[in-house]
Every structure is written in structure tokens, then in C-alpha cells.
Amino acid sequence: MQSENFIQDIVESDLAEGRVEKIRTRFPPEPNGYLHLGHAKAMYVDFGTAEKYGGKCNLFFDDTNPSKEKTEFVDAIRADIRWMGYTWDREVYASDFFDTIYAYAEKLIGMGKAFVCDLSAEEIKATRGTLTEPGTESPYRSRTPEENLKLFREMRDGKYADGEKCLRAKIDMASPNINLRDPVIYRILRAEHHRTGNKWCIYPMYDYAHPICDFLQGVTHSLCTLEFEDHRPLYDWVGITLGFAPKPRQIEFARLNVTNLVMSKRYLKKLVEEGTVHGWDDPRMPTLAGIRKRGIPPEAVRDFCARAGVAKAQSECEIGYFEAVVRDYLNLHAPRAMAVVDPLKLTITNYEGEEEVDFEINQLEEGAGTRKVKFSSTLYIERSDFSLDPPPKYYRLKPGGYVRLKNAYIIRADEVVRDENGEVTEVKCTYLPESRSGNDTSGIKAKGVLHWVEASSAVDAELRKYDHLLRDADYAGQDFSERLIRDSEHIFAAKAEPFLAENEGSYQLMRTGYYRAFREGGKLVLSEIVSLKDNFNK
Ligand code: ATP
Ligand code: MG
Questions:
Q1: Which atom of ligand 1 is nearest to the CA of 266?
Q2: Which of 417, 349, 361 is nearest to 388 (CA)?
Q3: Which residues are within 8 A (CB) of 261 and not within 5 positions of it... i.e. 6 or more apart?
Q4: pLDDT tens for residues 10-21?
Q5: For the chain, N or C: smaller number of CB within 10 Å?
Q6: Which residue has its alpha carbon closest to ligand 1 atom 9?
Q7: Whose CA is nearest to atom 4 of ligand 1?
Q8: Domain of 397?
């Protein structure tokens, strides 16, 4: 086994030197929204590291903030993790531990390591000092443990209004790390909790609760993103002060940032609420629900996370790289199918009856085989595949020119039918019976190969193409709303082979792109996953 990143290096040395016997990690979403691509990276790190070293990973719902959390999100998060193909060991909630977290607070009070403070949130902020100046000690800092205990219990029992008092750790107001300047560890908040209801009117703060929850779950390596690096001294203070053994170890890694994508639940929520997108699972959304709806397989997402790598340094990944990984995956695994956009009728005047031709499902996938596709004298091709007045080197259909119809015959265009406006409504052709694919003795070389759909069996489809939801940022910190592309969904009429209407899935539509086929209100929808061409230079 070979370490692939710095986290695995640490895990390997902890295992080799006997500091831990088996590793346990946790994936810690806050159930306040849907998971996004960034969370897939966190899952890759949390679940992936545990899997690799024969350990376990818990699903830990960080639900210390009752006003924003909902059971709807808990269910969606579970479904997304399963879809990604990960399995958790224990499912735990911070709220499972509220009693113990509370008991530890009384213990800190008894040790003289926590005190009840009457300063308001603003006053606490104002006395915290700056990066260059120390903070000012609270006038309530010297309360005795007995007094603190009495006040803290009264806080719990609902004697005080929201914000009237709080519990603070007593650490060091002069610490160069602001997180250690007597941080608030409990606040009074009357809000209904999605699991504990109205049992509590005080809630622990994340920085205090998290190390306790990790310890109580037996987490050995608590993996999180870089913004928690400055919080690690507090994480360690809680563990050391409360005598946790073995103490979990926090390791930070860089968040996944991707150009043209916003990975913030708060902003994604705004897009949903303002109706810019159709919902959390809109295919343009970077949520896992959106990615799934788009037709991107979970294997491609995992592959992307693995290739993007795990590092300590912040970086930004090109959206084109993500798309290239998706395209590579689909190229190897997606079945091929045919649909035409802006259809033009094509009649083969010397063909009679109908037959089935063998259509290769995917030449790149071993054993994918073929499937039968109906062929007759009346077909549709794409309007853009025919030209009356072709430029030089035009290998598609033109008057007198030959093309091959994919997996079928070579045809020659003979004449066109026009409507009253002069627009071409039909192309009449003849075919070469001896040119059947796989058994071509015609001796004619046709450079162009066109896809087609048999007309009598064709199904009407709505084809949807997408732009990115956001333009790339012009400058750092540019507001998301300035980058929003409001008109990013484009709808076209198409004709599809009937197979697509009966087999939901992700396809390579020949010469068109990668599309997901599904039914919506009885109608066939072909929704773009990613374009066919690789514009990204790996
Ligand atoms: P958001 O800002 O979107 O709300 P969050 O960090 O608040 O994200 P949580 O639900 O708290 O979301 O995160 C669960 C886990 O996923 C955490 O370990 C968090 O660090 C990680 N995570 C969130 N966003 C990313 C990202 N872009 N890249 C890697 N990990 C991420
Ligand atoms: Mg969060």
C-alpha cells in the first residue's frame, strides 16, 4: 500500500508507531442544506482514508445549530452518501451527546476552567482584542466555581433570556490565537431542535462540542478543511483539559474550489429560493443531487476527487478538468444512442420495407455488444448535416454527394423538397444496397458518417443544453450575483430512437454529446451532461 497524500503519511506513521491500532474517521456534515461537490471531496478523504487503512468512518451530523437544521436535509445527506457508494459505520448526532457535553461543561466549571459571563455578544466581540493587541478580561472572569455552577444550571433551566449570559472557557485573553481568548462554549438559544425539540434552551458551540463528539465516537483522525487550522489549539485545549485519552487528532486539508462553481450551501440556497434554478437538484447545481440529476455517475465524481488530490495548500481547479474526467469516464462506459436536433426528413426512394441494423453499444467497452435499431426508407437527420451550398471540404450530405448512415448504408442525395418559403423540408436520396455496414462491397468511399433516427418509430424529445451557472470570476472576491448567467438553460426539439424513451440513463448521443435520458411528465427529456469535445488541455 502506498501513501497518496500527507494525511495518509500521518495515518501510516500513527499506525506504524502504535499510536493507534485501527483508525476511525467521521464525515461531519451540518444538516442545513444539500451536499455539494466539495463534500464529495471531504467524503473521499474521510471515508476513503478509513477504507484504505482498514478502519471505519462514522456519519456524524453536526447539529449544534438548531435554527438552521432540518430532518429533510438529514435524509438527503444520507441518500447522497449512499449514492456516492460509501457506507458509514455508526450514525451519530452531536445532539446524541448533549447530556455528556453539558456534564463536561460542569466539569470545566469545577476545574475553574469555565465561567458564566454576563457580557453581551457585542461586548465580547469588542473586548476580544485584535491580531496585534491582546483582549480585555471579562469582569465576570473571577466568579467562583460554585457561583458559576449555580448560574450555569439556571441558564440550562431557562431562567435567563437568550443572549443574557453565556458560558466561556477560561483560557488566555492575551493569546496570540484569538480563538483561545476565553471563547464562548455555551449560549442561550430558544429554538426548537430537529431532534431534541424544546428540551434544551442552551446549546454548545461547535468548537467546544466537536472535540468531545470526536472523542466519544472513538475518532482517531478528525479530518477537516483548512479554515479550522486556527481552531486546532482550542480543539486540543478541550481534549487535554478534559483528559481525553487517546485524544483525537485534527488534520486540516485544503477545500476543493472549482472555477465557475460555488461551493457554499448558503449561496446555493439563495439560488433555489430566488428561483434562479429549478431546485436543489437542478442539473446546473454543483450539489450531489444536481450532479446525479445531470447524469454524472458517482464513479466519475470519485475519480475526480482522487485525481484532484489532497493537499494542504489552497488551490482552484478548472471546471474543464472536472468535465474532462466525467467525459473520460462516460466515453469508456456510456452506451451510444442516436437522437437528432432540428430534424430534417430524409427519404430513400429506392428502399422498400424495413430492417434492423446492428448498432454498436460502445466499442470501447469490452463485451458491450450491439443492439438492433430499426431502419426504413424514411429517416431524420440533423438539418445542419445537409447543405445545398456547401463550403469546400464539406463531408456531410450535399446534392450528388455520398455519406454513410451510421451502422447502415451509403446514400446519395438526389433532390430536395421545399415549402412555400423555399425552405428545404425533405431530402430525397438513393442508397447503395451493397454498402451495408460490416459487409460493404460497394467500392464507394464516403468520408462523412451521419447519425439518424428512423421516422415511424422516432420519439419526440426535449433536448436541454446548459451553460455554466456562473461566469468565471474576473477578480478575487467578486460577488456571485455579478457572475450569474441567468439564461443558462437552452431547450431544443429533437427526435430520438425509441430505445431512449424506455431506458433511462446516461448516454453518448452520437455526434451530439453526453446526455441523460429520462421521462418527465410522460415526455422524453435529453439533458446535457457534458459536451463531446474535450476543450481542456490536460
Ligand atoms: P458550506 O460552506 O457549503 O456550508 P460547510 O463546510 O459549512 O460547507 P459542512 O456541512 O459543515 O459544510 O461540512 C461537512 C464537511 O465537508 C466538513 O468537514 C467540511 O470541511 C467539508 N467541506 C465542505 N466544503 C468543502 C469543500 N469545498 N472542499 C472540501 N471539503 C469541504
Ligand atoms: Mg458549516
A1: 4
A2: 417
A3: 37, 286, 319, 468, 469, 470
A4: 999 999 999 999
A5: N
A6: 29
A7: 265
A8: 339-457
